[in-house]
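Format is chain and fold; as here:
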Amino acid sequence: MKTIRQKIRRLAPVALALAVMATLPAAAQTSDELDAAELEAAIADAIVRVFRMHAEKGDAEAQNNLGGMYQRGESVPRDHAEAAHWYRRSAEQGHANAQFNLGITYVTGEGMPQDHAEAARWFRRSAEQGDAIAQNNLGAMYYEGQGVPQDFAEAARWLRHSAEQGDAIAQLNLGGMYELGHGVAQNFVQAHKWLNLAASQLGTSDQDQRDTAVRSRDRVAALLSPTEIAEAQRLAREWRPGQAPD
């Protein structure tokens, strides 16, 4: 049930382009002296210097992005410990994406010892700021009892927050909980609604999860009357993203 995903926010393209151009060698800005490979290397080096300059000044967004570059080995040697260092500096300033990314590093154990309790702590801080994927991951950890005591009701609460924002994986997970009656009263109409929404959003990049959503929806449909199926379809059709009530 647990789904771990990575996301990195970047500086606005115009702001980044202007900052990078200001740090490029003059020859790269005004002439053809550099060939394509040299220019690409110069731009990559400039991007790193721009992010590092802002990160060292305490800019949380730049710190998160620099962490992402180290994690992926993008324009710098891949270094998970350095990635975790910059994620932490950003996360401690309250940056929701960095809090999510730091949670990821604790789950995977890349750059630091694996620690699911710490992962849950950082997912919670991100989730409390409204990050839908962090909400899904925190809900999944409560469902599995991973890093937190197992608590189906708390799992359902966080999954609902995420699902109501439109996160398809959370919708799949919440639909499964309604089917099984875990943390919520068993309700096949609600299960069909959420599984249908998940199936409609998941694409080829999430084919396994989409197949699961379709199979689960069809399995639930076999338990419903035609009137109940019509009601579930109506609920899915009329659903709009929004904040879930506490």
Notes: The radius of gyration is 22 Å. The mean pLDDT is 87. The domain at 1-134 is CATH 1.25.40.10 (Serine Threonine Protein Phosphatase 5, Tetratricopeptide repeat).
